[in-house]
Amino acid sequence: MDFLLGLFSRITGNEELARLLFIGVVGISAVLAASAVILLMLGLQDPVQRRLALIKRGHSGSSAGQEAPGNLQLLLERVGQRFASTESAKTSVTQTLLTHAGYRSSSAVQMYWAVRLMLPLLLVGLTLLLLPMIPGVSLNIGLVLVLMAAGIGWLLPALYVGKRKEARQGRLRAAFPDALDLMVVCVESGLALPTTIERVAEEMSVSQVELAEELALVNAQIRAGISSTEALKQLAVRTGLEDVQGLVSLLAQSIRFGTSVADTLRIYADEFRDRRTQAAEEMGAKIGTKLIFPLIFCLWPSFFLVAIGPAMIGVFRAFGNM
């Protein structure tokens, strides 16, 4: 508390004004905290308001296998919805990013922006509480720490979603060759394309869960009346992989011109194996360049120390005896 009073005194230059400002900040913070707690504990627990919120977000309380969202999730969705409505130009880009990361919920964009808004405020509050415990912290250092906390809170959700997107696409890319081989076998055995997709999704539901879910969603869309080409195009959009986009283009041309789907899948499987071999060769060719910096900073100093160290010690001893 003394640290905060001193901080306000340095900013305003007047002790009385600093006290009034400190009391005002404490009062506003208490009112906001109490309002948040009341909204969380009472407002969202009202059965009518909760039911309306569930209807607006498209959630059916009687659907099996799904749990109703909690009060905190509904609160975050409301906060994010206010911000996302003003950022309509970025909504499609954010929704695409979240879809590639595996968040396909209708409220994923609102939740994302709510977390990006509330996390910096939370970290700034924690920083202000921890600053008095650090001895010898000046005003400039305190402001830098607060700004760093706000920046970390703003960038951390984006970095997490980006890493999750890369990891998910890596797993899908690794599982894609196995799915292609299974599809070739199923099509050559006489199964239609929707039945092939369904069978491959069932076979890969244990080893590759994410790709199995995507293929099962494609099969569900085809059963709902969407054409196979459109369902596969939506699969390419959801995954964001160039390999899947190439497969969709080939299958669309095969379906349009009436050529054999098995031949198309076999040709693309061979092409994908060649592309994967080229990617492996490219990664192997980069190893020599990547090893330059570890060799320079780790191995060569030790080599010079072992090779030249004894000679340098002998030279120093010879000049020391003179």
TrEMBL record:
Its membrane topology is listed as: Multi-pass membrane protein
InterPro entries recorded for this chain? T2SS_GspF_dom (IPR018076)
Query: One GO cellular component from the entry?
Result: plasma membrane
Pfam entry (one): T2SSF
Q: Does the keyword Membrane apply?
A: yes
The domain of life is Bacteria
Question: Can you name this protein?
Answer: Tight adherence protein C
Question: What is the species of this protein?
Answer: Pseudomonas lini
